[in-house]
User: Fold this.
Amino acid sequence: MKSVNWSDFRDHIATADRSGKRKWVYPRKVAGLWFRWRTWFSWLLLIVMFAGPFITIRGNPLLMMNIPDRKFVVLGQIFWPQDMILFALAVLVGVIAVVIFTTAFGRLWCGWACPQTVMMEMVFRKIEYFIEGDAPEQRELNAAPWNGRKIFKKLFKHAVFFALSFLVGNVLLSYIIGWQQLYQIIVDPPAKHVVGLGFMTAFSLLFYGIFARFREQACTFVCPYGRLQSLLLDENSIVVAYDYKRGEKRGALRRAQRFGERRYAGFGDCVACNNCVTVCPTGIDIRDGTQMECVHCTACMDACDNVMKKIGSTTGLIRYASLNGIERGERLRVTPRIIGYSVVLLALTSLLVVLIFTRADAEATVLRVPGSLFQKMPDGHYSNLYTVRVVNKTSRDLPVELRLEGLPGSVQVMGDGSIIVPAQKLVENSVLIEIDPQAMRNDTTPLVIGVYSAGHRIQTIKTAFIGPRN
Ligand code: SF4
Ligand code: SF4
Assistant:
């Protein structure tokens, strides 16, 4: 077995010791320009995230992934299982957009917009600082024996964490089943919604586990996006980078030493204060280079900028830059890879837009009732029983009529004889189709059924009619 080279940071993860035990990360509080911008942006995202289930567009939610009812809503547009091609195409467009974005701008998403980072760094971490103090106080508290103060702080923190996780779990659930159904689960007797309550508890425990214990490990071990970085990033991608040309050779700043003197002595601008390491929520040293664990949270940029300001040097020793930018002073370049991805993205987006705008108002399926046989009617005609399912994709009720195309016969809708599909709903009816024996072909006759609404044919469906063998 290959042994681990502990001096090589790429040979092991920063949050495990030599025995494989987890090293708890205590990132220090950070302040600075980037943190301020991220705080404002996070507030905006949190408002959208928590208000999302209540925002509607033309009566439909902004976003809903209703897996139990197989109904998906994106920006108020409903996608039914029948729209799976559209949905798959939309996912593909999203994936390619992410690939292009990542190739150009690295993990900007992770640091600024990923719900895991936003919730962890801007909500849970801040609560932890408020209750337990900054990193040194947290270390001290964890090492201290259990006493009244420690029990109170720990209980208080975990109670708040669980309450918040419960809230986050419910928000996620309302993106799946809609807030109205979630409200019903809350107000109805528990026995009526055992499954819903089960999911509510499971989501709450999951988020509590992630934010109280799992933390940065979710990004390092679970998130596939982080793992893709080595595939997507190239030397022109913008990442959080340490300017090693300017920073090396690093060495502590001696009292009364000027930068000119440092340079003369062969030192760079990095004063080896380690502040960029102590603020890192994933426990890495960005001076080692781009690493899978780095979520581009900008904390090290702020920490280093603060040091540079203090010692009178220019900021940006750690900054957003590409490898080529640092090595050769190049600006962001549009590479052939980005052009290729963009062409594919443009083509797929155009196809998606065309498909969305030309999709039918309704979609029907007609299937013979399994196990049913043909019947001979008193007038000599033969009949088959079918199940028809019609999905109404519009926001108005839709009367639907079925007609036999090109064959003498009739279509009878069971029940009140008509199909009216309420807006954004699916209805299922039984339909009896009769045809003249003269028109039948041996035991299986191909049928073409026209689906009409307000006199317009919106779809034709092919199926088969079973009759007696000649
Ligand atoms: S290296 Fe810097 S940007 Fe990357 S996770 Fe650590 S603090 Fe954030
Ligand atoms: S914060 Fe800046 S100066 Fe301090 S160790 Fe990190 S890179 Fe060097």
The chain has 17 helices and 16 strands. The chain has a mean pLDDT of 88. The longest helix spans residues 148-177.
